Automatic annotation (TrEMBL):
A Pfam family assignment: Radical_SAM
Keyword terms of this UniProt record: Iron, Iron-sulfur, Metal-binding, S-adenosyl-L-methionine
NCBIfam families per record: rSAM_more_4Fe4S
Species this chain originates from: Marinitoga aeolica
Protein name: Radical SAM protein
Residue span, Radical SAM core domain: 69-286
Cofactor names: [4Fe-4S] cluster
Lineage of the species this protein comes from: Bacteria, Thermotogati, Thermotogota, Thermotogae, Petrotogales
Family: Belongs to the radical SAM superfamily. Anaerobic sulfatase-maturating enzyme family.
Length: 409
């Protein structure tokens, strides 16, 4: 058994790392494990626990060996390459600002809806800045509702936006259709204006802060997403601004990675880890980044993660030319293309299976005997396969999350 022990408010816990099982311990069991005070009853309990653990591991293997995991349930439509911002770490503004046409959107939705065995489908609008194509988004939503009725699917919507071109009409529409919103903002005014200026250089903070206020008038909770660069490692300040000034419900952060930014030095990484450790200790739960609370959720739910995410499984990311990729981050990476809209379904699913096998093999090689393997699932496949330089940072953040687990929170 590989395990970790925790003490929180005088209560004691054991986390089994293979099966991701968290159990509360009494004093006798705790001293049996920590002070080597042997106790027969505890030995018996450990045996029972081991049996439960083995059963749970077998069930999770069954899940990952079933074919249903490859059926699409999240369609990412990369609706446009155009963007009105010019972020310092982004590649989109270097591409031709083309958009998806309605014919392809219709074909893509029909292709997935008519073939997938999944009953619940989420459509995610992605860009560039997807709201530059608001009219097409509205048409796609109307179209998907018709297709949902035709193929008996339940549909949800989601959008990732820079939040700068919203107005009352757009916000009302997104709220009426119950969109899950991810707003990208990098922090307080000087960080946002430095890292995410409008094309032409003007700061974008004022506009996005105004729109966040408008959204919060209509919706109680909003989560935002920040990109952290090694030019502004101020995660504590960023968290404080989000929670105290903008009053958002929660936030996550991503690391801007090489080659789009300079390589992180060891000193910079240490500063980031120290700040993350400090915000974890904040009493207000909203300060905990969703990246860390996500690790805690996995542990508390007792999920065994043999695979980290939906890339190549439920996610399909469709590019403006109809080519399909494992997720939004892979879009346009020719080596990881999974086929194209309209191709023979079995062939497409086989491409997905091949991709999955490749990732799993790479995870086994790269993660080796890491004890967090079943909690983190092996880390982002994009970072793994493309050898992005932020992978070691992501590993360390997961480690911090597990070490600092607050069981009662
Ligand atoms: S923490 Fe890093 S090394 Fe460990 S399992 Fe996750 S990705 Fe692999
Ligand atoms: S591959 Fe990485 S970016 Fe893509 S869905 Fe998985 S975790 Fe997210």
């Amino acid at each position: 058994m590989k395990y970790k022990l925790y003490q929180n408010n005088k209560r004691k816990y054991l986390l089994d790392l293979d099966s991701v099982t968290l159990v509360e311990l009494d004093e006798i069991a705790y001293s049996h494990l920590t002070e080597n005070k042997k106790n027969k009853d505890v030995e018996k309990d450990i045996k029972t626990l081991k049996n439960i653990i083995n059963k749970k591991i077998k069930e999770s293997e069954k899940f990952y060996n079933s074919d249903i995991i490859f059926e699409p349930s999240n369609i990412i439509l990369n609706i446009t390459k155009a963007c009105n911002l010019e972020c310092i770490y982004c590649y989109a503004h270097k591409e031709k600002p083309e958009s998806m046409n309605m014919k392809l959107i219709k074909e893509s939705l029909e292709y997935i809806f008519s073939n997938t065995k999944k009953k619940k489908i989420t459509i995610t609008f992605f860009g560039g800045e997807p709201l530059l194509e608001f009219k097409k988004i509205k048409e796609s939503v109307a179209l998907s509702k018709k297709l949902g009725k035709k193929y008996n699917k339940k549909i949800g919507y989601s959008i990732t936006t820079n939040g700068t071109i919203m107005d009352k009409e757009i916000i009302d529409f997104l709220i009426k259709e119950n969109f899950s919103l991810t707003l990208s903002i990098d922090g307080c005014e000087y960080i946002q204006n430095f890292q995410r200026p409008f094309v032409g250089g003007k700061g974008s903070y004022e506009k996005i802060a105004e729109n966040i206020e408008l959204i919060l008038e209509k919706r109680k909770k909003l989560n935002v997403r920040a990109t952290v660069t090694n030019q502004k490692i101020e995660i504590k300040k960023i968290a404080e601004h989000f929670i105290k000034e903008l009053n958002v419900g929660g936030y996550s952060f991503a690391i801007a990675s090489y080659p789009y930014t300079k390589k992180w030095t060891e000193k910079e990484k240490k500063k980031l880890y120290k700040e993350v450790e400090e915000i974890i200790e904040e009493k207000d739960k909203r300060f905990i980044p969703l990246n860390i609370s996500g690790v805690w959720e996995t542990i508390k739910k007792g999920e065994i993660k043999k695979y980290p995410c939906g890339a190549g499984l439920g996610i399909v990311s469709i590019d403006i030319d109809g080519k399909i990729y494992p997720c939004q981050r892979f879009t346009g990476e020719k080596d990881y293309e999974l086929g194209e809209v309209g191709m023979q379904w079995e062939e497409f699913i086989n491409y997905k299976k091949e991709f999955y096998k490749k990732v799993v093999k790479k995870i086994e090689e790269d993660c080796g005997l890491c004890e967090l393997r079943n909690i983190c699932g092996g880390g982002c496949p994009y970072e793994l396969l493309t050898k992005s330089k932020s992978r070691s940072i992501s590993c360390n953040l997961t480690k911090i999350g597990v070490e600092k687990l607050k069981v009662g929170r």
